[in-house]
Every structure is written in structure tokens, then in C-alpha cells.
Amino acid sequence: MTSSEHDHARSDEPASVTLLGLGLMGHALAGTLLATGHPTTVWNRSADKGADLIGRGARRAGSAGEAIAAGSLVIVCITDNNAVRELVEPRAAELRGRTLVNLTSGSSSEADDISAWAAQHGIAYLDGAVLAAPDGIGTDEAAILYSGDKDAFDRHERVLRRLAAPTFLGERPGLAALHDVAVLTMMWNILNAFLHAGALLQSAGVSATALTPVLEGGISTTTGWLAGYAEQIDAGVFPGDDATIATHLAAMAHLIDESAAQGVSTELPRQIKAVADRAVAEGLGQSGYAAMISRFRSPE
Ligand code: NAP
User: Which of 169, 229, 249, 251 has an alpha carbon 20 to 30 Å from 175's alpha carbon atom?
Assistant: First the structure.
């Protein structure tokens, strides 16, 4: 930690923060830092962005290097990690002794690689995954997952908390990116199920608006099962005492038939049943639903 980082960690003064990238997300992050009283220096590749932030007190740096030099905490949020590497690698000298927080979406191996590069150059590195849209930044709804340098997280937690509820997941830099895709697979599966359900009921003249409260109740029931299933997965024990996979399988066949009868796509129900078919073929028919984790552990 540099002496200036020490000073910020101890003082009640709002820390100076640098924001590299003023796209939709970077702009929201910078706006929240300004609104919470942090001296904020901004830089964007195209200089036409962020005029309103300057009007609200942000300082526009003439170059990325000048921006980095202005803050002990440097946040980068741009399109992808190739762009991040292009931006930060030539500026290792300016970044040395500072903390780099990368809120750009990317893969876990990219995060591991950037972290290794940062360590070689004396840069504290945190990788972050933003679980919010830009208009959620700075509200109670927003969350950001972090992984990497724990000391850097502890030093800057107060600032990071301004942006969104922060969770530190562990020291392996790629953990935030891995959790990000875990959340996304959950999100897209729920959304596709919602759309399939909407098409199914629309075919019977029920509006999506009328259907939604019923589905929300179903989601709530299902999420109530997750903690128990997680314990089963961690223990490797899958009692079929709520419903066996064989029982689920029969209902899945019914879902395919009903979808076909209503003239809507059977693609999603067939995928769902294919997983259960293979689990039953492997002898898991009398196990509980979470036993199908084995179907997801290996490639197809
Ligand atoms: P965006 O509005 O498209 O902005 C992209 C930003 O990246 C712009 O500032 C752009 O600069 C900059 N950029 C691209 N290539 C660059 C390069 N080679 N060097 C320097 N700057 C470069 O994207 P965004 O919505 O802000 O998203 C930024 C990151 O946040 C992405 O990784 C995204 O996945 C993540 N994220 C976004 C959301 C969301 O809802 N928007 C949610 C979670 C995570 P120019 O202005 O010069 O083009």
C-alpha cells in the first residue's frame, strides 16, 4: 500500500477515485461517486462523453495516464478485457502502488491473467462483476461481486459500498467472473421458462400480465428449495423424499405433450426431459432432483 492509500484508509475524507471509461456503466459509476462526495477524475477514449459529469464537479483528465495519477483507487469499466489490457498494460508505471478495480465483464481466466500481470508490476488488483443495470448503481438493488486482493478490498470497501452492496468472494481473481456467469445462467433459464410459459398460456387466451403473479409464486416456491438442495450437493446425498426424478420425468413428458397440443415450441421442455432421461438411465430415478448435478458436471 502506498502512503497515500494508508492516509485514505485512515481518514474520513472521501477518497479520490479515477474512473476509466464513461460508457453506460462507467458513467453511472462516476455519477454515483460524485453524488457521494468523492473527488472523481474521469477519462474516456472518446472525449465527447461525460460533459454532464464535468458540470457536476468531475475532473476530466487529458490522458489515461494523467487520470491514473490522480486517484489511489482506479476503476476501469470498458467493453471487454482485451480493451482493458490494451489500456492498462502500457501504463504499469503509473499504476504501480495503486489499486486497480476492473468492473469490465469477462472470463475467469482473463481475470486471473490480468491479476498476474498486475502482481508483477506492484499493482493491487480486484476483479468485479456488476449485478445491476446502470440505473441501479448507487441504489439498494445493486450488488457487485469482488475477488482478488483482500487487503485492497478492505482498504477501499467504504468507497466500493457507495456504488453497490459489495461482496468479497475470495482471493482467486477469477471468482467474481465465475459467479457472474452462474447468476447469468440462472437468469436466462428463468427468463426462457417465463417466455415458454407465456406462449403456452397466451395460446389459451391468458395474457402474460395475468399469468405473471402465478409464475412469481412458483419462482418463490422453487427458490425456497435451493438451500436444501445445495446442502445435498455439497454432501453428495440426494434423498428422494420430496419427489423422485422418476416422478418429475413423468410431469416433463406431460409438459411436452401439452406444449405440442397448444401449438407452441417443445424445444425447452424436450431439453429439460433429456437431462432427466439420462439421469434415470444412469440409475438415478429414485433419487431427489438435485442428484442431476451429475448431468451438469461433465461436458455433453
Ligand atoms: P458501453 O456503453 O458500450 O461503453 C463501452 C465503453 O468502453 C466506452 O466508454 C468505450 O469508449 C470504452 N472502450 C471500448 N473499447 C475501448 C478501448 N479499446 N480503449 C478504451 N476504451 C474503450 O458499455 P457499458 O454498458 O458501459 O459496459 C461496460 C462494461 O460493463 C462491459 O464489460 C459490460 O459487460 C459491463 N456491464 C454492463 C452492464 C450494463 O447494464 N450496461 C451491467 C453489468 C456489467 P468510447 O466511448 O470511446 O467508445
Answer: 229
